[in-house]
Automatic annotation (TrEMBL):
UniProt keyword Transport present: yes
Family assignment from sequence similarity: Belongs to the binding-protein-dependent transport system permease family. CysTW subfamily.
Ranges for domain ABC transmembrane type-1: 58-260
Protein name: Binding--dependent transport system inner membrane component family protein
UniProt subcellular location: Cell membrane
Residues annotated as transmembrane: 7-30, 62-84, 91-115, 135-159, 199-218, 238-261
Keywords recorded for this protein, A-Z: Cell membrane, Membrane, Transmembrane, Transmembrane helix, Transport
Entry-linked PROSITE patterns: ABC_TM1
One BP term from GO: transmembrane transport
Length: 271
């Protein structure tokens, strides 16, 4: 009976994966081998790896995703650390997660209003005598908004990792004479590294393919592979080239997951 129950729940799960994960991947890979006229070709991959434009887009995507991940981590780790020490930490965590319930497009338009020439930031700058500045459609505005949107996805896994940390390890470190800095460097951070890796995955991978923010906030000054995919599918109708870039992004995401994934211990096999 238990076996039938497990099978009952397992079948919908497999069907979901097959229809919404495996099938789209197969279609993207399949479509990448066809040109605009529907002819089978390897030219898409040749163009991608020999074109300076696409290689520059790849570099830009990795560079901006790395910067967004770095600044997000820089804010998230101290936030998650001190959040664990607060009295009402679950309430504060809920307030941090709450913005993820708001549609991305609405948040983007909200920041357009804040960063525009007649927005609240420029009104404040004008009030203190600095004068209006071009904030919207800059690299700063793009990375700021992207980091703000991705912030909860970095904080949550780090928060969980710190919360699961055994306090006796910290006490033992203090008893052995380690100061706060040494305790953090040798005990707390290494034991919460899996949370950091999960956060890096959750932020870096989506940041590789941002296209809405590059248009609305970056003003197309920031060109990434996500922008190129949107152009090929919606403007030039070159689905083959768009799919090729999509395949490259999928491979890059798999590499990131392998690099940041939890390593199995050698002795685990013998247990």
């Amino acid at each position: 009976m238990a076996k039938q129950t497990k099978l009952f729940y397992f079948i919908p799960y497999v069907m979901w994966l097959a229809l919404f994960v495996v099938a789209p991947l197969i279609l993207i890979i399949y479509q990448s081998f066809f040109d605009v006229n529907g002819q089978f070709t390897l030219e898409n991959y040749k163009i991608y790896f020999t074109s300076g434009t696409y290689l520059k887009m790849t570099f830009n995507s990795i560079w901006y995703a790395s910067l967004i991940t770095f600044f997000t981590l820089l804010i998230s780790y101290p936030t998650a650390y001190f959040l664990n020490k607060t009295k009402h930490k679950q309430l504060w965590l809920m307030l941090i997660i709450l913005p993820t319930w708001i549609n991305l497009l609405l948040k983007a338009y909200a920041f357009i209003g804040i960063f525009s020439m007649n927005g609240s930031i420029n009104h404040f700058l004008e009030f203190i005598g600095i004068g209006k500045q071009q904030i919207l459609f800059t690299d700063f505005s793009f990375m700021f908004v992207a980091a703000y949107i991705e912030l909860p996805f970095m904080i949550l896994p780090i928060f969980n990792a710190i919360q699961e940390l055994n306090p006796s390890y910290i006490s033992a470190s203090r008893d052995l004479g380690a100061n706060n800095v040494e305790t953090f460097r040798r005990v707390i951070f290494p034991l919460t590294l899996n949370g950091v890796k999960s956060g890096v995955q959750a932020v870096f991978i989506p940041s590789l393919s941002l296209f809405m923010l590059t248009r609305l906030i970056g003003g197309n000054r920031v060109i990434t592979l996500g922008t190129a995919i949107e152009e090929h599918f919606l403007v030039t109708q070159n689905w083959g080239m768009g799919s090729t870039i999509g395949v490259v992004l999928i491979v890059a995401m798999i590499i990131i997951m392998l690099v940041t994934g939890e390593k199995k211990r050698k002795g685990a096999k013998h247990k």
